[in-house]
Structure formats: structure tokens, C-alpha cells
UniProtKB/TrEMBL annotation:
Lipid biosynthesis as UniProt keyword: no
Stated role: May be involved in cell wall biosynthesis.
Alphabetical UniProt keywords: Cell wall biogenesis/degradation, Glycoprotein, Glycosyltransferase, Golgi apparatus, Membrane, Transferase, Transmembrane, Transmembrane helix
PANTHER family named among the record's database cross-references: FUCOSYLTRANSFERASE, FUCOSYLTRANSFERASE 2-RELATED
Enzyme's top EC category: transferase
One Pfam family this sequence matches: XG_FTase
EC assignment: 2.4.1.-
Family named by the database record: Belongs to the glycosyltransferase 37 family.
Protein name: Fucosyltransferase
Topology relative to the membrane: Single-pass type II membrane protein
Cellular component terms per the entry's GO annotation: Golgi cisterna membrane
Molecular function GO labels: galactoside 2-alpha-L-fucosyltransferase activity
TM regions (residue ranges): 28-51
């Protein structure tokens, strides 16, 4: 019996030792697995960072960004533009949104933290009140009721297109500023000629006005429409009384802010009128002017504008980079051209040429004015008329992008620099993406080319632009450049001096109001010039349509 007990006792000891050994092995294996997992994770993380670096390097290599003076590393590329852009988008659905910043020098102007906060809040508002939302349907019901209503959670600003693409982009940006200031949701009436131009700028929503919007023929609204704010005032259907009840106001008001707007429509820029308009649930707007400077007239908006834009001249710069992202089809046009004609140059210069029937000048005279400006401001080297030997200057190259409806300007300059050496030995190349001969804003393909060329201009280091041209305004604003502006011809002759450096990168406010709301009288030019000091491209600084 003792022997049997001893044997059982030994068996238990063996089993206990075996269990203890097994437990140690399990713990050992678990620790070993954890160590291996950490090592693999660290290695993968390192590999991901390495692959990101390779990807960015390859992107720079393919676009010609690598080796340029403003080459950007993985750490330096700010795809979100200082918080301006939301990260809540699928990159492949709109490649330009996060890639475009790699094609130009970093902006020296950073958005204010307050502007970034306001944009995130607006995106939430747009998502809550945008098309297909219950609150949007509720507001449509109000629109059909025949009058405005107080205490509506969502109010709207509906934009309609007018004039060329440059005008449209400036007025969309202006309308968006007004929407931010008045807590409205901006919706765009997109016509067929604007399809496949821009990506959606707001996450999880759309800024496209639904096709079943109750108010029809928006593009036909004009100065004579009975629904304009000016005509409502004229016919006493709206009174400028800050105590007016919303229910006594029409369901919508049309804001006619085109260049031909008259005195009563210009009261839009008065505080009392804004307090009345704030009670109208739906505002419809059509414009062809950059009216943001006029919003600074309003004491109601003054503080908010200062907080959003401490640098006043950066309004269009920041909002154009926030709102306007070319669709993938347009982005393909941009990148293919950039890689083919611009990427490898040491310096890129843009020349934007636009002539107007009401300021005629011959092609020969205007081409000479462009060259005179470029030589006078040392933007292009002069040519050696008698020298034919090749000059290199260390192989320095300059790519000149010309945008114009006419091809003769580019061909003239290209031939000149092809047939002669330059005084500096630089190699100058000229290229022009398109020459449509006449403007066709009603054609989608025309607008796609125009948008592509605006962005290509914005990738240049220096710009020469034509006075009065909104095409040039858009390019300079996106790029944060102060261009040399070709001054308007006089008696079909080039002026002297041929150009002048812009005082601001902001677009010009071509038709500001001349009425002092507080003094209830018209004011002289001097009182307005401080708001439009960058309009040196319109002669005396300002142009009023009276």
C-alpha cells in the first residue's frame, strides 16, 4: 500500500511539473508572439513611411517638381492647406483637391483659425440643410407658401450663372462669403455648360440645386424682374423697416448684382437693408462682379470679416482654394499639359491675353505692349538682333505659358525667341494650350479648357495679365501673386507705361456702390478708393455704371 501511495504521489508530482512546464511554455509563446508582432508592426510602419516617401518622390519626378527650388518632402506638403480643406473626402474621387498644392510654391498666407472653424461649422450646416435633407424639404414647403416665415432653421442663397467662367468663379466666391456672414446655405444652379467642372466642396452633401426647384427660369431673372430687391422697394412691397415681420415679406427675393445694377439694388450694401433681407428665407442671386469688397462697407459684417480674414487681401485666395477643385477629367488636362510643357523649366511665366471690343487694339500693337512690359520689368530677357550663336547661361530655362483666344501672340513671341539668342543666354520656350478664337461660355468643353488654363497660370512664378480680365483675376488669386497688369489701350495704341504691378492679388470690384448709406447721399471717388485700391487696371482706379 505504501508503495502504491508513493507511486501515486510521484505521478501527481510529475503531472504538476508537467502542468507548470506547459504553463511556462504558453506564457513564453505568448510573449514571443507579442515581440514578433511588435517587430513586424514597426517594420510595416517603417515600410509604409518609406513607401509614402517613394510615392511622393515619384509624383515629384513625374510632374517635374523634384529638383525645383520649391521641392516638397513628405513632411512639407500640406495637402489640407493649413486646415482650409476638410480631410473627409475620398482622394480618388477628386484628385486635384489634395494634389494641386504640390504643383505650386507654398502660399505665404495661412488661413486664420477662426476661418477654419467657420468652414467646418458651415460644412455641418450644409450637411444638415442641404438638398434631400428633411429641413430642405421643409424650406421648399415654405417657398411654395407665398411668403417668408420666421424661425426657420435653414435659410438659403441660390446662385445662378452669368457671363464667363472667370466672372462665375468670382461671384460664387463672393456669394459664399455672403452665405457665411448670413448663416445661409449656398446652392448653385448648374447649367449644362458647367457640368464636370468642379468637384463638390462640402463633405457628405451637394451644392447643386435640385432640378425640381420650384422657381423656374432662374437664368432669365434680370434688372427688370419684379422680384428684384430694388423693384420690391420701388413698388413698396418691401419697406426698409428693421422691425418688419418675416411673414409680411415675399417667399424669395432676387438680388441683382450685375454690372448694370441701379441705386435701389445697390442698397444691398446698407446695414438696414441687410437686416430686412435677413428675414427672407430664400435669396436668389445673379452677378458678374466680385462684390466682396462691398461687404466691408457694412458695419454688420465688419468684425466677422476681420476675424475670418485678418489679411483682407486674402479673401479670394483662401476661398478659391477651398471651393474650386477641378474634376478628374479637367485635372487630367492640367497635369498632362504641365508635365509636357512646364515641369522641367527653372522658371515659369504666365501671360494672360484678353482684348475687348470696347477697347480695341491691333494684334501687332498689343504684342509689342506685352514685350515692352516683359522687357521693362525684366520678366523676359531681351533678344540679340545680330547674334546667332547659342547661349546657355548654365542651361537655365524659362517656360512661358500663353493663354489667349488668339494664337498669333504666342506664335509671334515663339518665333522671335527661336530665331534669336537672348541677352542673358537663357533658353525661352513658349506654349499655348488652346486658341478658341471666340469665347463660347455656353459650351462645356470651352469652360473645361478655360478652367484648366486658369490653374496652369496659377502654377507660374510670375504673371502678366490683361486689365479688366476676370480670367486673370482668378489665376492670380489662386496663386497668391501680384501680376503685372497690361494697361488698357488708348486710341487703339499701347499706353506708356505698358503695364503696372498690381497692388493686391484680390480681384477688382468693378462696379462698387457710390452711395453712403449713413449719410444718405452719394460720395466721391476718394471715399471709395480705399476699398478698391487694387483696381489700377481700370484707369483711374474705379469704374461706375450709372
Amino acid at each position: 500500500m505504501r508503495t502504491l501511495k508513493r507511486i501515486k504521489s510521484q505521478d501527481k508530482a510529475v503531472q504538476s511539473a508537467a502542468l507548470f512546464s506547459s504553463s511556462r511554455r504558453v506564457r513564453f509563446i505568448a510573449v514571443a508572439c507579442a515581440v514578433v508582432f511588435l517587430l513586424v508592426f514597426c517594420q510595416l510602419n517603417s515600410s509604409v513611411l518609406w513607401l509614402q516617401g517613394i510615392s511622393i518622390s515619384l509624383h515629384q519626378e513625374s510632374t517635374g517638381l523634384k529638383g525645383r527650388s520649391y521641392t516638397k518632402t513628405a513632411e512639407a506638403i500640406d495637402n489640407l492647406l493649413g486646415g482650409l480643406l476638410s480631410p473627409n473626402f475620398d482622394e480618388q474621387s477628386c484628385q486635384s483637391r489634395y494634389q494641386s498644392s504640390a504643383y505650386r510654391k507654398p502660399s505665404p498666407h495661412k488661413p486664420s483659425s477662426y476661418l477654419v472653424s467657420r468652414l467646418r461649422n458651415y460644412e455641418e450646416l450644409h450637411k444638415r440643410c442641404g438638398p434631400k435633407s428633411p429641413l430642405y424639404q421643409k424650406s421648399i414647403h415654405q417657398l411654395k407658401s407665398g411668403h417668408s416665415m420666421g424661425l426657420m432653421e435653414c435659410n438659403y442663397l441660390v446662385w445662378s450663372p452669368f457671363n464667363g467662367l472667370g466672372n462665375r468663379m468670382m461671384t460664387i466666391a463672393s456669394a459664399f462669403v455672403y452665405a457665411l456672414l448670413t448663416n445661409r446655405v449656398l446652392l448653385l444652379h448648374i447649367t449644362e455648360d458647367m457640368l464636370d467642372l468642379f468637384c463638390e466642396p462640402f463633405p457628405d452633401s451637394t451644392w447643386v440645386l435640385p432640378s425640381d426647384f420650384p422657381v423656374k427660369d432662374l437664368e432669365k431673372l434680370n434688372l427688370g424682374s419684379e422680384q428684384t430687391y430694388g423693384n420690391y422697394l420701388k413698388n413698396k412691397k418691401i419697406k426698409t423697416d428693421v422691425k418688419v415681420m418675416a411673414e409680411s415679406l415675399p417667399p424669395y427675393v432676387y438680388l441683382h448684382l450685375e454690372h448694370d445694377y441701379q441705386h435701389l439694388d445697390r442698397l444691398f450694401f446698407c446695414d438696414n437693408d441687410q437686416q430686412v433681407l435677413a428675414k427672407v428665407n430664400w435669396l436668389l442671386i445673379k452677378s458678374d462682379i466680385y462684390f466682396v469688397p462691398g461687404l466691408f462697407f457694412l458695419s454688420l459684417f465688419e468684425d466677422e470679416l476681420k476675424w475670418m480674414f485678418p489679411e483682407r487681401e486674402t479673401v479670394f485666395h483662401h476661398l478659391s482654394r477651398y471651393l474650386f477643385h477641378p474634376t478628374n477629367s479637367v485635372w487630367g488636362m492640367i497635369t498632362r499639359y504641365y508635365i509636357s510643357y512646364m515641369a522641367k523649366a527653372d522658371e515659369k511665366m504666365g501671360i494672360q491675353i484678353r482684348t475687348f471690343s470696347w477697347m480695341p487694339i491691333s494684334i501687332e500693337n498689343f504684342a509689342n505692349q506685352i514685350l515692352a512690359c516683359s522687357w521693362q520689368e525684366n520678366l523676359l530677357p531681351s533678344i540679340n538682333q545680330n547674334m546667332t550663336q547659342a547661349g546657355t547661361n548654365g542651361g537655365r530655362t524659362k517656360a512661358v505659358l500663353v493663354t489667349s483666344l488668339n494664337s498669333e501672340y504666342c506664335e509671334k513671341m515663339k518665333s522671335m525667341y527661336y530665331e534669336h539668342t537672348t541677352s542673358t543666354g537663357e533658353i525661352i520656350s513658349f506654349s499655348q494650350p488652346s486658341h478658341e478664337e471666340t469665347q463660347h461660355t455656353e459650351k462645356q468643353t470651352h469652360n473645361q479648357k478655360a478652367l484648366a488654363e486658369m490653374f496652369l497660370l496659377s502654377y507660374c512664378d510670375v504673371l502678366v495679365t490683361s486689365g479688366w480680365s476676370t480670367f486673370g483675376y482668378v489665376a492670380q488669386g489662386i496663386a497668391s501673386l501680384k501680376p503685372w497688369i497690361l494697361l488698357s489701350p488708348k486710341d487703339q495704341k499701347a499706353p506708356n507705361p505698358p503695364c503696372r504691378r498690381a497692388m493686391s492679388m484680390e480681384p477688382c470690384f468693378h462696379a462698387p456702390p457710390s452711395y453712403d448709406c449713413k449719410a444718405n447721399k452719394n460720395v466721391d471717388f476718394g471715399a471709395i478708393l480705399r476699398h478698391v485700391k487694387h483696381c489700377e487696371d481700370v484707369g483711374n482706379g474705379i469704374k461706375l455704371y450709372d
